[in-house]
Design a protein that fits this description.
With 435 residues, the chain is of the alpha/beta class. The chain is built from 14 helices and 17 strands. The protein binds flavin-adenine dinucleotide.
Amino acid sequence: MIEEKFDAIVIGAGMSGNAAAYTMASHGLNVLQLERGEYPGSKNVQGAIMYANMLEKIIPDFRDDAPLERHLVEQRLWVMDETSHTGIHYRSDDFNEAKPNRYTIIRAQFDKWFSRKVREAGATVLCETTVTELVRDAKDKVVGVRTDRAGGAIFADVVVLAEGVSGLLGTRAGLREMPKPQTVALAVKEMHFLPEEVIEQRFGLKGDEGCVIEAVGTTSRGMAGLGFLYTNKESISLGIGCLVSDFAAMMESPYVLLDALKNHPSIRPLIAGSEVKEYAAHLIPEGGYKAIPQLFGDGWVVVGDAAQLNNAVHREGSNLAMTSGRIAAEAIVKVKSRNGPMTKRNLALYKAMLDKSFVVKDLRKYKDMPALLHTNSCNFFTTYPRLMSQAAQNFMRIDGTPKIEKEKATTAAFIKARSRWGLVSDAVRLAFAWR
Ligand SMILES: Cc1cc2nc3c(=O)[nH]c(=O)nc-3n(C[C@H](O)[C@H](O)[C@H](O)COP(=O)(O)OP(=O)(O)OC[C@H]3O[C@@H](n4cnc5c(N)ncnc54)[C@H](O)[C@@H]3O)c2cc1C
């Protein structure tokens, strides 16, 4: 195994680890990155929408050679009951810009590309290498790692923990708590392969244009959950996720929900005739602001999903991962440039910089979201979707009933289902959550 001492060791070659390793290596730091997977991306799961702005801040010309699937021109938000969906669709030709803002990607390909950039920037990347332990000195400062490869410890001034949501290393080392069932979602996803032209015809797309559907409703069986459908070039990613604590309480399993989503009359025609070639399951940190652990200490920082930096409300994770990785790396570069030791005091710069970024500002804004969604969640995910469908049908069926009576019937149905007080309290809770 490698004998020399590094400026930094990065654990994990996902979005956050690659961002950190690339940024430090391009600033001339001697970086070692360790990844347990056979290749970067082999273990990683994402929907996947990738947000260009955050990658541009790391690799401005990424569009030249990154494996991008489709740029998004249309987003559909659906509220579903068993037989219908009520939707808001937004589509704009403005998204056909020279430098599109959002792309679908396939992580296995994208992470390989990102890792090649990390190597080209000068970092040493070792795959099939699991970090088994953090090494500390007599003063408890993290000074290196041990791996499952033969040989002793590998030393570095600072260790960047980019090990993803379940992050056993950090929890085993006592740097943070194990994620709780009520702060992590379990999502399952299938890749449905279809010819390019079929996808384009079904979603009204041309060239590299893409469309996404995000759906809430009765498919999650009263649990707070989100279904998604993302168009790639020659495949459709279809998935759904709910909190682990909800799955346990409801004794439900994720693949049952995925089956319900696939067989929903609004989804089934979109994937008809497809061949499923991949199935994946993965956790997503959804505890929000209150679940963010200690982000730095003597000789270490934690980034990305391992730091629970995920915005469940806006379904953003990879951009928070890339940004926290980049910012941690920039903080380390700053400390190094003034010959400062990688102490807790100096590495506090990472948190100070992160606090000023959209990452923490966005998470702070929605700090009560999980509580909102998980108190009486069945109203938001079952009762209201059914009522919305009922109201839409009532409005659309022209059957000679005077409109005033239709309006009264709709209002009565809402009050019967939730009572006046229930409706007001749900509206107030929603308004407060989004204030
Ligand atoms: C189903 C699903 C859909 C999603 N959709 C989206 C989306 O559309 N848009 C979006 O922005 N985000 C999405 N996310 C979230 C996004 O995938 C994550 O936020 C992002 O991948 C986090 O990156 P990361 O680098 O922190 O962790 P990861 O990508 O999980 O990378 C961690 C890496 O560390 C490695 N590792 C772990 N332990 C060790 C060890 N001991 N030694 C060596 N290596 C180790 C792992 O093998 C892995 O490669 C989705 C997540 C899921 C599960």
